[in-house]
Protein: Tetratricopeptide repeat protein
Organism: Streptomyces kanamyceticus
Amino acid sequence: MSVSISGAFTGARRQFALTRRRLVSTRRRFAVGIRRLATGTTAVSALAIALMGIIKEKTSGPALVVFVVLIVLAVLALILVARPATQESGTAEDATVRAVPPNNLPFRSRYFVGRKKEMALLERTLRPEKGPKGRRVSVVHGTGGVGKSQLATAYAHGTLTEHSLTRWLNATSPDRLLCDLLELATLIGITYHESKTVVLTRLWSWLRDHPDWLLVYDNVQLDGAEQSGEGPVDQQLRLQPLLPPEGVGEILITTQLREGWTGLCPDPVELTVYDEDDGLAFLRKRTGSTADERLRWLGRQLGWQPLALEQAGAYIEQAEIGVEGEDFEEYLQRLSAQSADSDAKTFELAIERIGAQQPAAEDLMRLCSFLASEDVPRATLFRYRSVLPDRLRLVMDDQLAFTRLVLKLVDHSLMTRHGDGRTEPVTYGIHPRVQIFIRSRLTGHERLEWSQAAVRLIEAAFPLAPDQLESRATCDRLMPHVDAVTAEPAWAADSDGELGAARDPEALVRLLHRAGSYQNHRCEWKSALAYFAREVELRGLGTGSEQCLATAHLATARQHYLLAHLDTAEAACGRALALCDAHKDDDAFQQVRAQCCRQFGGILRERNRFREASGYLEAALRIYELQGSGWEVIDWAVTEQEAGMIHRNAGRHVDALDCYERAGDLVGGGGSTGLEEHVVFRAMLRRDAGIVAQDRGDLDTAERELSAAHEVFRSKRGEEDFETAQVAKFLADVLRRKGQQCRAASRSTRNPLRKRRLRAQAHAHLATAHELLCPVLALLGKRRTTEAHTYAACLNKLGSLQWAQGHLHRAIDTLREAEEIYVTAYGPDHHYRAKTLSRLGPVLRAAGDREGAERALRTAERIFVASLGEGHPSLVAVYEFLADGAQDPARAEELRARAARIHRSLWGKSCPS
């Protein structure tokens, strides 16, 4: 009850504030108009009086009357001239409202009828007569072809004048939906930012400040990862990041998904086929006939399925069939002779008719049946038409003829066309049920030809360097088509080389590799693994060289490694290395061999087998040294950096810094200049140097290095980038430790001014740490199910920060969750679990659980000594915390002496006194 009252009060307060702003704005405009009118009237009156005094002596009678009339007309003209200026002098808020982009709704079908019950449900949910105003959500669900998008379009057009902003969003995938939301942000004038999260936050703020909007999320679907899951998916959790969290507006969602909407919309609208009355009304309107009995025969034969009725109506119109004539009887007989499926009955006759008139039109549909059902870019078709079969390509060489072909398909309701080519690009769409039907009609020969043509088209359009930031927008828009063309390609079946793959045998595997590389760059490792695994499968069938097969095995190994599947990663890397060993004398394999050695080193590093890991990195370095400048120098430098990571994990910080220095020398010290790849790599080296400084306890150096690295990553890679988040995570932990140091120093000083200054510094450090860590948690939280180990590392930092902020019980829960994740992923004796326990111990002691703290720290000590050795830097904090809780002073002194010895070893000969 309190929550609903609070929500109602908040909504009422916002509405009152908005009304008040509008009244103030109106009052200002009115006051400006009155002032201008008064000023103009006074000036004209004064002029009139002066002139009348002069003219009075010489003018009388009718002439004087005419003069006065002219003066009055001059005053009226001044008012009319001043009025536009008064309107233009509105506030900045009014200017913003007028900058709202026009709606992008699909054309409303002039044949739309009925659906009164469903429309009333939408009105009741989205525009209730009573209750507080706020964000209102309605969901329309139903099977394909029942008219969900048509209902949404009719509702949006019918309420167009009642909304300040109306926007249609393609929600077939999260990436596609995000693209449309970012495009909307650009259109309403939101300043560009490299962080998509920042842009979305600004968009949500704009929607909160500008009420009465409508957003239509059309065709929400499950992505590939969710389709294989168990049980219904909570759509609220899935869509939450892409829904405006507040504001006065409406969200209308169309989907085939029946389950999982309770959190967003307790009473979704289910759409089914027409009832007989609505279906008959539709056919009357679509055919222009009132022969109800004949139309009922048609509707019943098609099961009153809206899509089938539309197809039949379009056919009757295009074939100029008279419903009351014999040709209609013949049409009914042909329908009854077709498939039992109502859609298929109408599709087949329409396609046969078009195919007889324009064979290339059917070819275009065959191509589109293997692409995504929406957003097929016309520009892409024309730019890369050289890869298409000859008959379609020749028609496309004449753009006017191609346009007529498309319009013919649109007239038969077999294809949709969006955009006018002037204000927005032209795209095509084809209903999924039409796609399925067309593919079902293809012979084996035709399936090969058109599935492979679709692959070649998307492969030609997909950027060659998908890991570059400037390629992201193009990749985002093409990924639905990548998923479509790789879903069921008839590729390896082209054994005789007659067509299709024979023109470009490696197009599919190249596309899979590029799509995997793009997902890897976005740190979507599970998705990347799926693409690379399919590439391995196809290359194993003999597509491409053994070098390419080795590269594909290596790519899958890397994804398994990043997902913490170390056994699988080691096996895949072993297969890649075995292929390289079989071609020791072939220089072409040396680069792949070096990459395999680097990957093996990383896998063994995660297993704490540091000596073996260093051996593999040394082998890779020898390969790069032999090649010299023949390869990209960045690969050599990265190998030095990876060797440094092994030394750092093993506790050999001096050796690690030497490796980082050599890596920096290889790419040069160009600061913020030079190749962008080198700039980012130098930032990585500063990040690693900052982590070493943090391990040594040199927090000022750590903050300086990590802050510099973070700025570069934010500007070059964006805030949603995984590596940017990693740097922010480490920087937040450094600031947390500095905050705790300042707080401890404030307790030990008796100088009130110094105490106050230290407390202020502690508060500032902890606040900045919290500000840095929150976006990282949000980013990694989305990947929790597939990459729990990366999320657990962030939980470690969060738990320590919560402890520093005084939230002890919250910190304990957070660290326990991290410990559970590590035990599940790596086992109970891995040093990652020990790191969590070393943070948990002091928190438990602060909460009064001294026994629990001792037990956690002793377990951490045992794991560290067994897995990393007695001199590892991670033991410093463990021994210091154990010393703080020791009852025996001698025991405490011994523990501190151990910590001091390890700490000195981290600095080598340069250890500070």
